[in-house]
Design brief:
The structure holds 2 protein chains of 2 kinds.
Chain A (H helix, E strand, L loop, with lengths): L3 E5 L6 H9 L4 E5 L3 H4 L6 H4 L5 E4 L6 E3 L11 E4 L2 E2 L4 E2 L4 H4 L5 E4 L2 H12 L7 E5 L9 H4 L1 H9 L5 E7 L5 H4 L7 E6 L3 H7 E2 L4 H14 L2 E9 L5 H15 L5 E8 L1 E3 H10 L10 E4 L2 E4 L1 H15 L8 E3 L3
Parallel strand pairs in A: 1-2, 1-3, 3-8, 5-9, 9-10, 10-11, 11-13, 13-14, 14-18
Antiparallel strand pairs in A: 4-5, 6-8, 7-12, 15-17, 16-17
Helix pairs in contact in A: 10-11, 11-13
Chain B lengths: L1 H9 L4 E6 L2 H11 L2 E2 L7 E5 L2 E5 L4 H14 L6 E10 L8 E8 L4 E2 L10 E7 L12 E3 L2 H8 L8 E9 L9 H9 L2 H35 L4 H16 L15 H14 L5
Parallel strand pairs in B: 1-4, 1-5, 5-10, 6-8, 8-9
Antiparallel strand pairs in B: 2-3, 3-4, 6-7, 6-10
Helix pairs in contact in B: 1-6, 2-5, 3-4, 6-7, 7-8
Classes of the chains: A alpha/beta, B alpha/beta.
């Protein structure tokens, strides 16, 4: 899976590091002082590195959980996100990670306990309120599971935080660890989808829609709570028809009534991140569509955005109730 | 096979820049690529054929830094470069003649980390650059006298993916340092095929990044040479050219030769873009 593993001196003897290295026997291991030596240098080309990213094993020292952007969430007003890993196994052309970091290496923080400790502190600020913690913002929550065993740890940890909910957002089919666990009703496994055409055009390395639905069905049958994330909606000439087909495919296999939440959002991006992405892929058709700038973000023209949200919401409401639907408003 | 790889490399629009410390290290590469000395350059010995350049820096970090800095200036008009340091190195136990690629390059104070972004199969090993010949080989690493300076200097002007170091073992604990020129040349010559394959793999991938952009760059250059573009108009032109690539607009169809003002050129390209709406 990776040729090279960089390991920070501080965590080289961490039990999780040792376990990961055991799983990656063929990889060349390089000891480093701090991950920033490899991850942060300016003169890096994300696109070239994406051909063969390395794994960096490191320790995170602060800011384990951060407030989620305004409008991000599925019903609560206490929303935080956290990232045990930066960068993703997949290569989705619409993903903001391409314009976010200089390096495409996978940066894994192995001190999972420190994440949970800060999450507990945040949740204790108001024990009568529900707090939501979103994983999968800067990485895919499950894609590297065979190496990281992250879900094993984090799902168990959330059992001890009564007012904390966890979203594991993913496009992965790596669900073996979850199937070996007792489902935790406060953990939502949220699967992201784009329609089949966008998937073919833009999602390199991502399992097929059919494979993801197969994984979702196994999890639902096992008793796990699921979420659906149709985000981003990507405009193309036949998007309405393709979205309709996608929903038919999804709800033929997944029990809509047992879906915790469905979120919906069109392709959007911070302006600077978008500029970085164009620099990397100047010829990408997705980036050369017509966009407008709103509040330092780029997205489709307002009328197109409104149409897409209206049309797709109406389609979704044929299967789910309005209280399951959460449009992304940021 | 060797000839086909050599011809392939030399036809690329990405320029391959090889830096060697010693003339005897360079000789087999000059022969393999049929390089000719550029006679009007006197600061360093520089050779070229097609898209391959080779510079002989002289021994040590100061010489190597100077060579790379000088050559970077000389080659600044080329948009896509691939830099490669090739030379001999010591190692405590590796076999004489074995080829390595540096994955960590250190001097006494600092370490740098070249990116292995291709799937090449050359053995990876840390490289330690020292100021005097290493006789103790204390660490399980390659020892040379220029690698750090090469990498540090070349990555000042290029992304680190475009800079790599290949080393061939000339001495170890059982075989003392041997500075015989023929011995060194033979060591390099025996690895020429692998070196060429390494270069072809990397320049081939870099080529995919810049094939179109070179054509559009030339188009831009032609326009800015003939008409006055303000700075913001130049930026606008650059963006429009990028879009034009995505819109698959044929450069020949952009007939701007009659235009006498930059703003008219920009609006003409915009019109073409509007006529050729991008669909996913």
């Amino acid at each position: 899976m990776v040729d090279i593993v960089y390991v920070e001196t501080e965590v080289k003897d961490h039990p999780r590091t040792l376990a990961i290295l055991k799983r990656l026997k063929k990889a060349t291991v390089v000891e480093i002082e701090r991950y920033s030596e490899v991850f942060n240098p300016k003169a890096q080309n994300f696109r070239l590195q994406k051909n063969n990213p390395a794994l960096i094993i490191a320790k995170k020292h602060k800011s384990f959980a951060l407030p989620a952007p305004e409008g991000y969430g599925v019903g609560s007003d206490k929303n935080y996100y956290f990232s045990h890993m930066l960068n993703c196994l997949y290569d989705c052309r619409y993903c903001f990670l391409q314009g976010m970091y200089r390096s495409a290496h996978y940066l894994l923080f192995v001190n999972y306990e420190d994440f949970v400790s800060e999450i507990k502190q945040i949740a204790q600020q108001n024990p009568t309120k529900d707090y939501w913690f979103f994983s999968g913002y800067d990485c895919d929550s499950l894609a590297m599971e065979p190496i990281t065993h992250f879900s094993d740890y984090i799902v168990e940890a959330f059992k001890d935080i009564p007012n904390a909910y966890l979203e594991l957002r993913t496009k992965s089919t790596q669900i073996r660890q979850l199937l070996n666990q007792t489902p935790n009703p406060k953990v939502i496994n949220a699967f992201s989808f784009t329609d089949e055409y966008s998937h073919q055009q833009l999602e390199k390395g991502v399992p097929s829609v059919a494979k993801r639905l197969e994984a979702m069905k196994k999890l639902q049958d096992h008793g796990w709570v699921l979420g659906l994330r149709f985000d981003p909606l990507v405009y193309h000439a036949d998007y309405q028809q393709h979205f309709k087909q996608l929903l038919e495919q999804v709800f033929t296999q997944i029990d809509a009534k047992r879906i915790h939440s469905v979120s919906l959002g069109v392709f959007r991006m911070p302006r600077q991140t978008f500029k970085n992405m164009i620099d990397l892929y100047p010829q990408e058709k997705l980036f050369n569509q017509s966009f407008h700038i709103k509040n330092k973000n780029i997205s489709y023209e307002q009328s197109r955005e409104d149409d897409m949200m209206d049309i797709c919401s109406q389609e979704l409401l044929k299967y789910i109730s309005p209280n399951q639907l959460f449009p992304c408003l940021f | 096979m060797l000839k086909a790889t050599q011809q392939h490399i030399m036809a690329q629009t990405t320029q391959t820049i090889i830096a060697c410390a010693l003339a005897c290290e360079a000789k087999p590469l000059i022969d393999a690529f049929k390089l000719k000395k550029i006679t009007d350059i006197h600061a360093f010995s520089v050779y070229q054929a097609g898209s391959v350049f080779l510079i002989v820096s002289g021994m040590g970090q100061t010489n190597m830094s100077a060579a790379i800095n000088w050559l970077s200036g000389y080659l600044q008009s080329y948009p896509s470069l691939f830099w490669l340091n090739i030379g001999v190195a010591g190692h405590p136990s590796a076999d004489i003649g074995h080829l390595f690629c540096a994955l960590k390059i250190s001097d006494q104070q600092q370490s740098l980390y070249p990116t292995k972004w291709s799937k090449h199969k050359i053995t990876l090993e840390p490289l330690i650059t020292v100021n005097n010949e290493e006789l103790l080989y204390q660490e399980q690493a390659l020892y040379d006298m220029e690698g750090f300076a090469f990498y540090q200097s070349a990555t000042r002007f290029n992304s680190q993916e475009r800079v790599q170091c290949l080393k061939i073992i000339s001495d170890n604990k059982e075989h003392a340092v041997n500075r015989d020129k023929t011995y060194i040349s033979n060591l390099i010559a025996h690895q020429c095929e692998h070196i060429m394959a390494f270069i072809a793999l990397h320049t081939g991938a870099l080529e995919k990044l810049n094939f179109n952009s070179n054509a559009f760059k030339a188009f831009q250059q032609q326009l800015t040479d003939t008409l006055h573009f303000s700075h913001s108009q130049q930026l606008q032109l650059s963006k429009l050219c990028q879009s034009a690539q995505s819109h698959q607009i044929d450069l020949d169809s952009l007939d701007v030769t009659q235009e006498t003002q930059a703003k008219n050129v920009l609006s003409l390209i915009k019109q073409q873009l509007d006529l050729n709406a991008v669909t996913l």
